[in-house]
Design a protein that fits this description.
4 domains, about 550 residues, 26 helices, DNA Primase, Chain A, alpha+beta, DNA primase DNAg catalytic core, N-terminal domain, Dna Topoisomerase Vi A Subunit, Chain: A, domain 2
Length: about 550
């Protein structure tokens, strides 16, 4: 429909005649007035001006306005183009109605590309519809050069922006770019989202959209729905752009988000990819199995990120790919790489770097780590990992090999459920002191908080205690494991440190509560002092060697 046709159509329209087909209107001077249908209106607040052909609501908090077609579109909840068609029929000039789109598409991939061109054009032109998207990219320090390289786009904050382009709605729906409501109306799928195109074998197979909205009810990231051609379990964002660098370097960097890939690319790390929705499976690992010898996995810095990293590491072990993990608590790769002057790739790899065994043992414990490295097909690498695990846990390598053989027979889900049967730290300390002559004293702070019976056991180590404790099957099983620890004094120190931290945190909570109740500054001072001691102890643990096992 040409601009001339639209102008001609509105020259034949009397807006008051259009609106009175929907609502009772009352003439007030030159204008008309009626109750606004777009909000709960007790007094008529919608003013219709025949002279300029618009309506305007003056009701509190409403403010709806527009022409006759806008009114029909909003009232009937239909696209603007369809409202123009209704107007053309009303004035008896159907020839002035919008013409159907004549462009034909052969398949989903073609219409995906056409839609991406539309999304990109609106993002990279100074259009008010996309100003918020450009601002969001600037705030994340994504340059226009990077955005164009990765072919970003923007789907405007309208339910019908793509629908109103008059394309093939059936094919758009098949491509999952629009949806059909129960009422039979079409709606844009990626409304108000920055668009990330996803390619596979040079075909544009789908998209990921990152919302610019603030509602907690909508997902932050939205992928094209799974179909015959789009399966997120087989895809890696950034692979199409960075595959050549990955193959050349024989190394890959794996992240969880699209923005992570963009930020790292801007900092010179041009062999990064992102998984879709934190899902990583065998098909994705198979994409680069033959091209890569080493993978660096960057954690999102939260609990979910830790779980994702460990899952990825398992698949890499099975494919004989070395894993290096970067984990900065509370920081994802986007945060780490956003500011050029703060980004130091070498420092991230050294100060915050772990191998897979170190990372898994720290976050999951001994048994879980053993089970996860059981997927090794390379005996030399398995032996190296067992040696690392022996140093971390304090257990002899031969015992670890024996337990590994047992764990291979058990499903991982069973191993993860072992936490239900884990002992308290106090019980572990009692068993440790009972089964050997430990020369590590208990400090006064901890001694005053442990049960008197436990302190007495540690101090006197009565004869026959070990056998007496072994009547409890859980204790008996644990005693047999503790007996194989190489350096029990170091393990005792580790347990005592953990117990001190546990009771110090309890003291902080207690004093916070007392300060809240009394407002006595002495409790606040005690909190500050205790927090300082906690931080000192944590730093000491971080710089030392951990001898924790499955007791967390």
């Amino acid at each position: 429909m040409s601009k001339y046709d639209t102008t001609k159509l509105f020259s034949l329209v009397h807006i008051e005649e259009v609106i009175k087909d929907y609502l009772p209107i009352q003439k007030i001077g030159e204008n008309y007035r009626c109750k606004c249908p777009f909000h709960h209106d007790s007094d008529p607040s919608l003013v219709i001006s025949p002279r300029i052909g618009i309506f305007k609501c003056f009701g509190s908090g409403c403010g709806e306005t527009g022409n006759a077609a806008s009114f029909i579109s909003k009232y009937e909840d239909i696209p603007y183009a369809q409202a123009l068609k209704i107007l053309a029929d009303k004035v008896g000039r159907p020839d002035l109605a919008p013409k159907a789109q004549t462009k034909e598409f052969k398949n989903v991939f073609e219409i995906n590309q056409f839609a991406l061109n539309l999304y990109s054009n609106i993002l990279f032109t100074k259009d008010d519809l996309s100003s918020n998207a450009r601002m969001a990219l600037r705030e994340r320090r994504i340059t226009q050069e990077t955005a164009k390289l990765f072919q970003l786009g923007y789907s405007p904050n309208s339910w019908t922006w793509l629908v109103d382009q008059h394309l093939d709605n059936n094919l758009l729906e098949q491509a999952n770019l629009i949806l059909k409501t129960d009422a039979g109306h079409y709606r844009d799928y990626f409304k108000n989202r920055i668009i990330f195109p996803i390619f596979h074998q040079k075909k544009l197979i789908g998209f990921t959209g990152r919302t610019l909205g603030v509602s907690q009810k909508i997902p932050k990231y939205l992928n094209s729905k799974d179909s015959d051609w789009f399966k997120k379990s087989k895809l890696l964002y950034g692979w199409a752009q960075n595959a050549q660098q990955i193959r050349r370097q024989k190394e890959i960097v794996i992240t969880e988000g699209q923005f992570d890939v963009l930020q790292l690319h801007q900092r010179g790390i041009q062999n990064a990819v992102a998984v879709s929705g934190s899902y990583f499976g065998p098909d994705q690992a198979n994409l680069f199995q033959k091209s890569v010898k080493k993978a660096t996995i960057i954690s999102d810095g939260d609990k979910a990120g830790i779980e994702a990293v460990i899952r990825i590491g398992e698949f890499l072990i099975e494919r004989n790919i070395d894993s290096h993990i970067i984990h900065v608590e509370g920081k994802d790769p986007d945060d780490l790489a956003r500011y050029k002057h703060r980004f130091n790739w070498e420092k991230l790899n050294t100060k915050y770097g772990y191998n897979f065994v170190e990372f898994c043992h720290e976050h999951k414990g001994l048994e879980s780590t053993l089970k996860r490295i059981s997927g090794h097909r390379n005996k030399l690498k398995l032996s190296q990992d067992l040696k690392i695990l022996s140093n971390l846990s304090g257990y002899d390598e031969k015992h670890l090999e024996h337990w590994l053989a047992q764990y291979k027979k058990a499903p991982l889900t069973e191993m993860l459920d072992l936490k239900k049967d884990e002992l308290k730290l106090e019980d572990e300390l009692m068993l440790l002191y009972a089964c050997d002559n430990i020369n590590v004293p208990i400090n006064g702070f901890l001694k005053n908080r442990l049960e008197k019976n436990l302190v007495e056991v540690i101090k006197n180590k009565p004869e026959g205690l070990t056998q007496d404790l072994a009547r409890n099957t859980k204790y008996a099983s644990r005693l047999s494991i503790i007996d194989n620890i190489k350096d029990k004094d170091k393990y005792a120190k580790d347990l005592i440190t953990k117990l001190n931290l546990k009771y110090m945190k309890k003291e902080v909570s207690k004093n916070k509560k007392l300060y809240k109740e009394t407002q006595d500054s002495k409790y606040l001072e005690q909190v500050e002092s205790m927090v300082k001691n906690i931080n000192k102890m944590k730093l000491k643990v971080r710089n030392g060697q951990s001898y924790s096992s499955s007791i967390r």
